Amino acid sequence: MRFRHPDGSTVHLAYCTNVHPAETLDGVVAQLRDHCEPVRRRLGRDRLGIALWLAKDAARTLVGDPSALRGLRTELDRRGLEVVTLNGFPYEGFGAEEVKYRVYKPDWADPERLAHTTSLARVLAQLLPDDVTEGSISTLPLAWRTAYDGERAATAHTALSTLAERLDALHELTGRSIRVGLEPEPGCTVETTTDALAPLTAIGHERIGICVDTCHLATSFEDPHHALDALAQARVPVVKSQLSAALHAEHPHLPEVRTALAAFDEPRFLHQTRTRTAAGLRGTDDLGEALAGDALPDASPWRAHFHVPLHAAPAAPLTSTLPVLRAALADLVGGPHPRTRHLEVETYTWQALPPELRPRARAQLADGIAAELTLARDLLTDLGLKELP
């Protein structure tokens, strides 16, 4: 979906395909047929933006076989789909029964992360629509915090600097500018936008910036206005933003609230949980850990890294952090010029919701994704952007 900003530039809105992950190119093509095109049809649009997640094997196939890459581009065109951004955070296995800590491997101290992201950039340069010259890729925020020392930090810095050089060369070769954004996430070396300032300013390259995920922003209790202003002052580019909402519990000390939260404690994904205290931010690596005894203070609200559907906040006594998303979006694209032109709805946890809230068929999932995109569209038009055909 495309929107015209009041300054005349185009802002792209997509939804991320990691909600129905596939490891192979054949699986990706099946996604387009079974999921993406039905969402487009529900929205009544001739063209729909999708943010592709390409696992290791799919990316390698596309880089190694030009005919396969041309075939994917043809399939996108045939189904009325376009790609300006990729989700490069998960490497493989995102559809596994248990993902948890595995999603942070390989990290930026591992040469394979550089190789994979380089492949993604080369693929994206060929998938961009003919009238688009800028693409974006989100990636993990360096590494999970444990076992990350000074030596590994130096290795990661070198890898990102090498990536910047490769992106420059790709631009010279293709005329397409691909940028990569670190995506701060609770529990990682770069947990907040503030944590991102030092490594990104040290690299100091326009093609290496940040991906602002509004669920992660909210989970860490960051103020969107202050966070985005700090990035602007440090001249750290917002490469893209993922529009997502976290799980919010206003009174976690109440038994009924803990019972409601326990329904979201599931075995597949990690749901880092945070609370803000007088001494600062406190947290656990997972929701179950927070609910166990007194692992996390419960005198103040809790927020959990659980991407809940944008249009359907959990039933009371829980809610979502949609207000944080609204505030962030106003700062991102509501000013005289957009701070980013790539927006991506990323609710990958539909099948991890409590059983009674999960879609039971493809049609229900497509309905839900279309409803999220409709909400995002309305937020954009309320900010003065005009939806384009």
Automatic annotation (TrEMBL):
Domain Xylose isomerase-like TIM barrel: 65-228
InterPro entries per UniProt: AP_endonuc_F2_Zn_BS, Xyl_isomerase-like_sf, Xyl_isomerase-like_TIM-brl
Originating species: Streptomyces albiflavescens
A GO molecular function held by the record: isomerase activity
Keyword Nucleotide-binding annotated: no
Protein name (database record): Xylose isomerase
Superkingdom of this protein's organism: Bacteria
Keywords annotated in UniProt: Isomerase
Pfam families associated with the record: AP_endonuc_2
